[in-house]
Amino acid sequence: MQNAYRAGHVAVIGRPNVGKSTLTNALVGAKISIVSPRPQTTRHRLLGIATFPEGQLVLVDTPGLHRDQGKSTATAMHRWMNRAARGALEGVDVALLVVRAGQWDEADSFAYEALSGAGLPVVLVVNQVDRLKDKTALLPYLAQVSEGRDFAGVHPVSALKRNGLEALVKTVLQHLPEQDALYGEDEITDKSQRFLAGEMVREQLMRQLGEELPYATTVEIERFEVDGRLLRIGAVIWVERDGQKAIVIGKGGERLREIGAKARQQMERLFDSKVFLETWVRVREGWSDDEAALRAFGYHD
Ligand code: GDP
Ligand code: MG
């Protein structure tokens, strides 16, 4: 007898940088969520739709929760990211708790308690197993973190190398309700191409700028037009000070060109189209702590 089709929402939860967005992309089979070696790359809640013959996972990729260091120092941006992470649990059927192999800390215990306390099946995803030098350490680690916890499944995977994902999908599907697909099978995200274009530019800012600067930048897509077989995209990179503008542009405009070139390549791959991308850098003081500016830049629920 054939199994019934299953579909539902799957929250992807975990500390910054464990690989939540990489996992979401690997399951969806396309790069829709930006990834960088920096924590706090993901700022928006984003749905990744992964459709299989047996069912459909609607993955909710989240910005990790931030510890508010007291109301006065948490910026409006951090408050917004926390709201997006908390809101991610509404209407969810299963939670994936993602950790990095060999690591577990209080925040993970706290997340497990919160998720299982909310009545959700929690599947533990032990990611980045490709980075483990001593593979024999994996079994004792799995035993240790499972001790006293009732996981709906424990899956060592490498999101980067796409190892272990089939078994993970199988486990997750078992915990989704029997129902028809929630999205069309060719849909991969709830976000518009316009939004994704901005994210591709932001990813390059995260990757190519020094320590502090990425957090002082955001991207606004001013123009997104289909021109025959070409996409014409205009992106404004907003910074907070003149000095930052000079850094983003770089000597003779070199850095901005490199950011634009890499972002354009990513867009062409995702949109399967030729892209003509123009970029500008503009200054708006204090945008990241200005609620009105945040809304104007698309940080709204
Ligand atoms: P997030 O903050 O949890 O969304 O983490 P990201 O998906 O942005 O990944 C953070 C960093 O870890 C990036 O540099 C990824 O390339 C890297 N990464 C994610 N998954 C894996 C993995 O399975 N193996 C390895 N070696 N690196 C990974
Ligand atoms: Mg992420």
Automatic annotation (TrEMBL):
It comes from the Bacteria. Signal peptide: none annotated. It is found in: Cytoplasm; Cell membrane. Residues 6-178 form the Era-type G domain. It is a peripheral membrane protein. Keywords: Cell membrane, Cytoplasm, GTP-binding, Membrane, Nucleotide-binding, Ribosome biogenesis, RNA-binding, rRNA-binding. GTP binds at G14, R15, P16, N17, V18, G19, K20, S21, D61, T62, P63, G64, L65. Residues 201-285 form the KH type-2 domain. CDD domains: Era, KH-II_Era. InterPro entries: G_ERA_dom (IPR030388), GTP-bd (IPR006073), GTPase_Era-like (IPR005662), KH_dom-like_a/b (IPR015946), KH_dom_type_2 (IPR004044), KH_sf_prok-type (IPR009019), P-loop_NTPase (IPR027417), Small_GTP-bd (IPR005225). Monomer. An essential GTPase that binds both GDP and GTP, with rapid nucleotide exchange. Plays a role in 16S rRNA processing and 30S ribosomal subunit biogenesis and possibly also in cell cycle regulation and energy metabolism. Belongs to the TRAFAC class TrmE-Era-EngA-EngB-Septin-like GTPase superfamily. Era GTPase family. This is GTPase Era. It comes from Novilysobacter selenitireducens. The gene is era.
